[in-house]
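agent> fetching stored inputs for the flavin-adenine dinucleotide docking request
agent> found them:
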Amino acid sequence: MDFTLSDEQLMFSETARTLFADSCTPDHWRKMMEAGVARDDARWASIVETGLTLVLLPEEAGGIGLGETDFALIAQEAGYVALPEPLVESAGVAAPMLAALAPDSEMLADPSATIAIQHPSNPYVANADSAAAIILHDGGEAYLVTPDQVTLTAQPSIDPFRRLFSVEWDKANATPLGKADWDLAFDRAALFNAAFGLGLAQRSVDLAVDYAKERQQFGKPIGSYQAVKHHLASAQVAIEFAKPVVAAAAAEIGARDVQARARVSHAKLVALEAADKAARASIQVHGAMGYSWEVDVHLFLKRTVALTQTWGTPSTHRARIATRIFTQPMGPDQTFAREHENA
Amino acid sequence: MDLTYTPEQQAFRAEVRSWLEAHVPKHPLEHFDATREGFEAHREWEKTLKSGDWGMVTWPKEYGGRGLDLIQWLIFEEEYYRAGAPGRVNQNGIFLLGPTLIEFGTHEQKQRFLPKMASGEEIWAQAWSEPMAGSDLAGVRATAVRDGDDYILNGHKIWSSRAVFADWAFGLFREPGSERHKGMSLVFFPLDAPGATVNAIKKINGHVGFAEIFLENVRVPAFNRLGDEGQGWHICMATAGFERGLMLRSPARYQVAAKKLATLWQANKETADPALEADVVRAHMNADAYALNIYQTASRLMAGAKIGPEASTNKIFWSELDIHLTQTALNILGPQAELTHDAPDAGAVDWIDDYIFALAGPIYAGSNEIQRNIIAERMLGLPR
Ligand SMILES: Cc1cc2nc3c(=O)[nH]c(=O)nc-3n(C[C@H](O)[C@H](O)[C@H](O)COP(=O)(O)OP(=O)(O)OC[C@H]3O[C@@H](n4cnc5c(N)ncnc54)[C@H](O)[C@@H]3O)c2cc1C
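agent> prediction call returned; pasting tokens
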């Protein structure tokens, strides 16, 4: 039993943090919003160059072959900058699925290509327009298409950096990939979005802390008032108790049993609840500034709203935890128990 | 990262389990705060525990412990709560003062106090709060005046849990004329010392769970001072770290409660409001999240880290989850929620008592408002 990260894991997330801090600043967000784009090719190139997109890919498919814990740490750092590019869905979900179904796919050969994924739990496909390929589903089977082989209808999202599309397609124009593991895709997406949510949450708190130290009212920084402090402290409590759940979910996802699924669902629920609490506290602490387009907090709120409801709604995830509770032993000796041990 | 138990850890769990199965009293003991008999029955249980060498497993062997690590401590606690073993009447000693003594005490002090603490021979109360020093603990007025090799203690302590029946107390005193955080010392005194008067105070559940203590020229040897003279505040904060961050509330306690809640829900779900299932699920999530957080903390401490201001987040989390959990039980029970355990229709779990107990959580061990101040100022860096 050891619940600590290795030095290598910490180094990797440090690398991701530095990269994102330099390449995804408020200035970058502003320029992209002005230009109405959701992808910065230079930034994506540096993400690819650093190897972040290869972390979860097996070595046979040209990847680094690390695990979910490693990728979750990267996703968390991506959340801290509300990364516009689809790192989670492409490198964390779609590319590993494609590698499992078609390790020789040419789409995997181009490291700078992003892959979008349609999933039975989501009505829309995110970032389908800028993807090199889209994985589609039909009756448990996966199909691969390029965006020009399908009809994409934009479904604008409140989040300026999320491009959602309805997809109309014809099997005749698609490459069949065979039966796919949609459950694994779902669990990975839920887990990595939970990790992303931790990053969103911490950034919302940090933005508010910075503001509350500077902004003066009644002759004092507003951060010296308890009502302000307590909003942010409560958000930090939520973050601190979501973190170990995300870490455990990442470590256990491979067990693929009812406990592991419940843990992933728990992680997704509490991490995005923390993000919601933090974003709303942050807006409140910023006052009217927080309600303006000018201040960046709204980006964190909007991504939180989007991620809370995709890859399983809160009720879907609660139901998976209920299944764990009502079909498996509970109690203090069951924290890390696996399904077969209880059978 | 490895979230599985080693074979040694599994064997340890089995050892704890089989010992507890053989020794845990078949019938629950009367509450230790209710009567002297209940208190003494718990003392007897502590002696039984010590006979199996289970008094305080993390302490060094030479002071009455087993020299085990924090993961083993968590396993022990899990089995302890799973077995429904009696509450630890000496918790102020073993969970708060003990770890502090191990950090700050001299070898002679450890030899003198720890083994008897581990065996329940000497049961401890914490005497920090005063009528004018609650949240603002630095406002302590009780004094310790040096007189040769002794201290003379004077003052008025209050809200001291278990002091009604306990043997010893560890109190916070100041040098006369000193101010605020300076000049304080942590000094032990026997509760039956000449000049010490202990008056019981009833809690809202009717138990004499805490007391006020009047000290009039109580003479104790200087040997009873923990750490250096004037270091009292620093030592108290270390104790408070153990209290909030790790030891006071075992995750196992809430995991057992969450399990009982799920059982209650299963038994009542045909008639209860279906919306309550979400709260039952939430109670389990909270208890599990707390357990995971503590496992992570234990791993960090074993790797050499120290408890910091994040301990304050724990205290808020467990106290709030306890209230939510017990209140959910009351919502499931509906009109039977108010029944005491004496009522013919009362169920096996005394949920109303648990709920009333839970309401103290946000007050003691530093109120949750104070914890939020600490988080804001020391974790987030907001101005005072
Ligand atoms: C069941 C129980 C057991 C206890 N056991 C012990 C024990 O064994 N030993 C011991 O020494 N003490 C014990 N205490 C006392 C406990 O530590 C104090 O109650 C606690 O520190 C709060 O102090 P107070 O009661 O004087 O409340 P006050 O300090 O008067 O506070 C009253 C209210 O004001 C709020 N408040 C005060 N200051 C601030 C501030 N700066 N910012 C925001 N809000 C503030 C508090 O949060 C609280 O809500 C126990 C208390 C309880 C309820």
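agent> quick read of the result: The longest strand of chain A covers residues 133-138.
agent> awaiting further instructions
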